[in-house]
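Subject: design request, 336 residues
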């Protein structure tokens, strides 16, 4: 079934394959994204403080969070900000896979040693691609995080939320809040796709197309490793991009180190790993479905390119045959 011959897919093809897989995977598990975001922005409250909305409650875990969100906001609350999130997922993954393909192809074409790049090189290439992707897509992530943490009575659309960020904080630069943390977090996709590529080369050497379950397994394993390594930074980034907690009198955090210090002071070091359960589950499922879909899309592109080349060759052959037939008819006339 698998296409074993090595064929080159252009960067835009890999980008479309990666973005399609990411959108499908994130749409399937979107409620987990809401839950992990709410868990990561919450701060423990004093016993005297009364909770009035979902965002003011202190969730005891993922299941408790789901129950509270449904109770306060209905089933639709689990899909708050979904359009913006999927738009961000599509743009981020399109940019990431495009630049990853470009920098990896450029590196391989210019080096003298044959064989796949080392693990360190794979991580470096992934980090470079991730940094380029973040520069263009972080405003969507900021707006989406705000939408996911808005109280029930203050739900706004993407454009209105973006205007609120611009007007209430640092102007247009507010849309790039958490940029430093995001650039640091490029190690997450770098570890993910670097580990995926390395595992693929080791476990399935020479294979171009993987079976769906093989791609799912490698994607889940690589994302789990990346999430465990970068969870404190993920929590800090979400804290930077969300509304500041009431205890700070509405003052936004200025850096991800400040967020981490605030969490440690109020909740202890383990607070940096809050939401790790749904984060791991979401990452495992999303990356598994993403890589499974991406592998299928890449195979589809290969078959499509083969079909286009075949049709083009047949067309050229017909033109050549037609020209040859005309030449045969014209030749006797010219001789006379």
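Subject: RE: design request

Done. Sequence follows.
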């Amino acid at each position: 079934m698998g296409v074993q011959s090595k064929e080159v897919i252009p960067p835009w093809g890999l980008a479309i394959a990666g973005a399609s897989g990411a959108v499908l995977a994130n749409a399937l598990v979107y409620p987990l994204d809401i839950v992990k975001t709410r868990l990561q922005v919450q701060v423990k409250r004093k016993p005297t403080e009364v909770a009035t909305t979902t965002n003011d409650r202190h969730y005891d875990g993922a299941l408790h969070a789901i129950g509270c969100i449904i109770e306060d906001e209905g089933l639709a609350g689990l899909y708050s900000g979904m359009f913006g999130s999927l738009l961000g997922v599509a743009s981020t993954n399109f940019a990431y896979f495009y630049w990853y393909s470009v920098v990896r192809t450029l590196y391989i074409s210019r080096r003298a040693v044959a064989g796949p790049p080392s693990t360190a090189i794979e991580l470096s290439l992934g980090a470079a691609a991730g940094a380029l992707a973040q520069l263009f897509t972080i405003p969507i992530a900021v707006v989406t995080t705000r939408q996911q943490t808005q109280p029930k009575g203050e739900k706004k659309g993407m454009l209105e939320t973006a205007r609120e960020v611009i007007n209430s904080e640092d102007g247009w630069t507010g849309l790039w809040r958490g940029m430093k943390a995001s650039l640091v977090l490029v190690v997450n996709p770098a570890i993910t796709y670097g580990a995926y590529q390395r595992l693929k080369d080791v476990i399935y050497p020479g294979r171009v197309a993987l079976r769906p379950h093989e791609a799912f397994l490698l994607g889940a394993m690589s994302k789990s490793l990346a999430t465990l390594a970068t969870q404190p930074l993920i929590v800090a980034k979400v804290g930077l991009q969300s509304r500041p907690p009431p205890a700070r009198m509405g003052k936004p955090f200025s850096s991800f180190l400040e967020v981490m210090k605030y969490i440690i002071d109020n909740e202890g070091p383990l607070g940096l790993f809050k939401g790790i359960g749904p984060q791991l589950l979401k990452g495992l499922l999303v990356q598994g479905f993403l890589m499974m879909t991406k592998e299928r899309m890449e195979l589809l592109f290969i078959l499509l390119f083969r079909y286009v080349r075949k049709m083009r060759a047949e067309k050229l052959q017909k033109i050549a045959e037609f020209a040859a037939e005309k030449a045969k008819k014209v030749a006797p006339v010219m001789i006379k």
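Residues 1-6 have pLDDT under 50 and may be disordered.
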